[in-house]
Design a protein that fits this description.
heterodimer; A: 210 residues; alpha/beta; GMP Synthetase, Chain A, domain 3; 2 domains; 33% helix; B: 261 residues; Ferritin; 0% strand
Chain lengths: 210, 261
């Protein structure tokens, strides 16, 4: 779990640099130990969304779970215990980061004094890379990962098989050249493929559009 | 030693187990390539696909275990279903359990099964079971990518060297006799179709052939002539190979019940 800890610490550090007010407010709430009343529901939900801006993906630790579009909803379960219910959607069926993300989300919200917190996984509608925010795409590119293009709306209808993939025309995140090629359809995680730039000679990853 | 669970015999549960088990056993076979791929890229590709398939299997088995209780039986979780069932209670297609063979066998089986699963997930988007439809929405995107990768490789092996062509031909001869099982409907399918749970497997045959035949043709290999032989994995009667997979997969949970790490 040390990786989770480290990413949480990185998240807090980044949040203090960029969006410090929300985290400071959240930390202040934790100090006060004041239970949330029904009167400030919206505030509590808004603050939860702010905290989630700082929960980073464990495998691509520059984009938050919000940037990735995997947080589908945050709501209050008033009928049960007034707890926060965070609705997440998995990226890939077998993504091993899913459980770490669940734990990080719960820990961050509890640490901010917004608990009790429950995570509900919701598969439908299926996650698509189209839900990655513009900011998330910028962060991916700056991290050296070519962001996904639009997901193919006709996926599953027509498919063409070829013995060798031609040049991809994907933009190199390092030098912006379009002289790139795919060297592996699968990469270090389920969501990425491996490419190479023929202009600068560097390999780079591509976040696959799905 | 942890004893085996008794699984519901309800057709709807068996329908789901056929899907989940085919994904799970295919994942086990692909996972065997970890550290043994002919090139690093394919080592990573096969284990990535195995990971997707394990995820799909987990979701389907979880749903199957919940459905057992909904239909009046005992609920089981995904781990109980994966680790505490006997061989006869596994309902995967026999083709998934055949030894991994060489790279041509693996590529061709991937192509055959990912095409089949893609077509199945497409149909399951409209399942009357909302959870199964949701699983299908996710799995479809993954199966499509698997099919693309496997299909490209079939052409590459077919158009490669004499040796790759010879191995691809041998793979077709080995695997194709196990395919009729995938397209012959029975009472489990009929009931699933009637309730809106999912398609009969015979309904997928035409679409599957339409996608697979041109690729084999372009790769220069011809399927062997049809034979009377029928495999029966989806009815729980398996080849001699499944027991070895289960022995390896289940050993830890059988010997150390509930063990986690």
């Amino acid at each position: 779990m040390s990786a989770v800890r480290a990413s949480e610490e990185a998240a807090v550090a980044e949040a203090l640099a960029s969006d410090g007010a929300a985290v400071i407010a959240a930390l202040a709430a934790e100090d006060a130990h004041v239970p949330m009343s029904v009167g400030n529901l919206d505030t509590r939900i808004d603050r939860a969304w702010d905290v989630l801006t700082c929960v980073l993906d464990p495998e691509v630790p520059v984009v938050s779970v919000r940037d990735l579009g995997i947080v589908r909803d945050v709501r209050l379960d008033a009928e049960r215990d007034g707890g926060l219910e965070v609705v997440l959607t998995p990226t890939y069926s077998g993504c091993p980061a899913t459980e770490v993300i669940e734990a990080s989300v719960c820990a961050a919200l509890n640490d901010a004094g917004l608990g009790p917190v429950r995570v509900r996984m919701q598969r439908s509608p299926a996650w698509t890379t189209d839900w990655i925010s513009a900011d998330g795409r910028r962060k991916l590119r700056e991290y050296g990962i070519a962001p996904p293009g639009p997901a193919d709306p006709d996926a599953g209808i027509a498919m063409r098989f070829v013995p060798h993939r031609a040049a991809t025309r994907l933009r190199c995140p390092r030098c912006d050249s379009l002289e790139t090629e795919r060297i592996s359809a699968f990469g270090s995680t389920a969501c990425k493929a491996l490419h190479r730039c023929r202009a600068c000679g560097e390999p780079f990853e591509h976040f696959k559009p799905i | 030693m942890q004893s085996s669970i008794e699984v519901s015999r309800q057709p709807a549960v068996r329908y789901l187990l056929r899907i989940g088990d085919t994904c799970l056993i295919q994942a086990q076979r692909l996972g065997e390539w970890c550290g043994h791929g002919p090139v690093l890229e394919e080592d990573i590709a096969m284990t990535n696909m195995a990971l997707d398939l394990v995820g799909q299997a987990r979701a389907v088995l979880t749903r199957a275990g919940a459905l057992e209780a909904e239909l009046g039986g005992t609920a089981h979780d995904e781990d109980q279903l994966a680790f505490l069932r006997d061989e006869r209670d596994f309902l995967n297609l026999t083709i998934a359990e055949l030894p991994r063979g060489d790279f041509a066998v693996t590529v061709l089986r991937n192509f055959a099964l990912s095409t089949l699963l893609k077509l199945l997930w497409q149909r399951l988007l409209d399942s009357s079971d909302a959870e199964l439809a949701a699983i299908a929405g996710k799995a479809l995107k993954e199966a499509r990518y698997h099919q693309q990768h496997a299909g490209d490789w079939v052409l590459r092996l077919g158009g490669g060297t004499e040796e790759s062509q010879r191995r691809l031909r041998a793979a077709v001869d080995l695997l194709w006799p196990y395919l009729p099982e995938a397209f012959e409907s029975d009472e489990v399918d009929d009931e699933a179709f009637a309730s809106g749970l999912g398609p009969r497997c015979a309904d997928l045959a035409d679409a599957w052939h339409a996608e697979v035949a041109p690729v084999l043709d372009e790769a220069g290999v011809a399927p062997p002539a049809p034979r009377a032989f029928r495999s029966t994995g989806k009815k729980g009667v398996h080849s001699e190979h499944l027991g070895y997979i289960l022995a390896e997969m289940q050993h830890l949970q059988r010997s150390h019940p509930g063990g986690v790490w």
